[in-house]
Every structure is written in structure tokens, then in C-alpha cells.
Amino acid sequence: METHRFPVPLTIGLHSDKFLCDLSLTEEERMPTQMTVVLDAESGQLCSMQKAGGASMTSEQLARALALCNARRKQVTLARGQQQPRPL
To answer: How far is CA 52 from CA 32, 34, 36, 46, 66, in A?
Structure first.
């Protein structure tokens, strides 16, 4: 099966106006506000965004969260391009 898109998900927690990225399960359980953002690896286009409970976010916080996700997307995309294909 050939895929044309490579989604890059990132879970972010918000606590006291501080962001924590790539949460572990333990961190997720303790984080009052969290969201998951999925971006297309190549274009950076938003594929999905889901916020689970917690406090509301300001537009500035949302912009910061999306900027963090975009930076992480670039890191993942770069690392993915440097990997050697696995033999079948």
C-alpha cells in the first residue's frame, strides 16, 4: 500500500501557562489541559486537532501550541528523511 501523506501527531499539555510536549502516559494523566495536533509532514497542513477537557485556551496560547507542533513536525520530517529504508 502506498501512502501519500505522513501525519505527525504531537500531544501538548498546558499547565500554568507552560507547555509540555510529547507527553508520557504519566504526564498525560496529571496534566489538567492537553491537546493533540496532527500536521501533514510535508506541507504542515493541519490534519486534526483535539483538546480534551481542562481550561480554555486563549488565541495566543493556541498559536504557540501550533508553532510548537510545526517545529516538531520539521524535526520529525528531517529525521524521517535521514533514515535508511529497511530491506524487505
So the answer is: 9, 6, 8, 18, 16
Cα separation, 80 vs 50, in Å, equals 25
Domain ranges in the chain? 7-82
Specify the pTM: 0.77
- Which grid cell is 74? 520539521
DSSP percent split of the chain into helix, strand, coil, nearest 5: 35, 30, 35
Nearest 5°: phi and psi at 33?
A: -130, 130
Residue 88 has a pLDDT of 42
